[in-house]
Design a protein that fits this description.
The chain is an alpha/beta fold and 147 residues long. It has one domain (30-145): Rossmann fold, CATH 3.40.50.300. It is built from 6 helices and 4 strands, in the order ααβαβαββαα. Strands 1, 2, 3 and 4 form a 4-stranded parallel sheet that branches. The longest helix has 18 residues, at 128-145. Residues 9-61 form the AAA domain.
Length: 147
């Protein structure tokens, strides 16, 4: 794990190499706007922005929206760690004013934390609800990517 941001010239080289070798490359960035983020966004076909339905996340996502708009790259929001509460629906309405929102919510489930510790995906566990959420989210992303 890096303890510092990558050098911009190294990121450009890495992104170019990845684009030449792979059909799909997923880059997980921090929830901030480091200097190199514009470079990663510029190489993207789609940016998926996870947002928790909380006032803090809704305030903080503005910088990410500005960055993807500046990069002129398609994006969508995915609500994550969602409770079954009115705040989830309200967050979706707020986000929809800025872009498309995935029609599936990723609930707050213990299995997501557990699989993070084991290196598994939830589709490899017995948590059928989590597996269905991820499959539906992936289907939505594939639909956007495939036009």
């Amino acid at each position: 794990m890096l303890d510092r941001d990558p050098a911009p010239h190294a990121l450009r080289t890495t992104l170019s190499a990845a684009q030449a070798q792979f059909d799909l490359c997923i880059i997980d960035t921090p929830p901030a706007a480091p200097e190199w983020l514009a470079e990663a966004l510029g190489a993207a076909d789609l940016v998926l922005i996870p947002v928790r339905p909380s006032p803090d996340d809704l305030r903080a996502v503005g910088a990410t929206i500005a960055a993807v708009n500046a990069a002129r790259v398609p994006f969508a929001f995915a609500l994550s760690q969602t409770p079954r509460a009115r705040i989830t629906d309200e967050a979706a309405r707020v986000l929809a004013q800025h872009g498309r929102v995935a029609p599936v919510n990723i609930a707050q489930r213990v299995s997501y934390a557990e699989t993070g510790a084991t290196g598994q995906g939830v589709t490899e566990t017995t948590d059928d609800k989590a597996s269905a959420e991820i499959a539906a989210a992936w289907g939505y992303v594939k639909g956007i990517l495939n036009g």
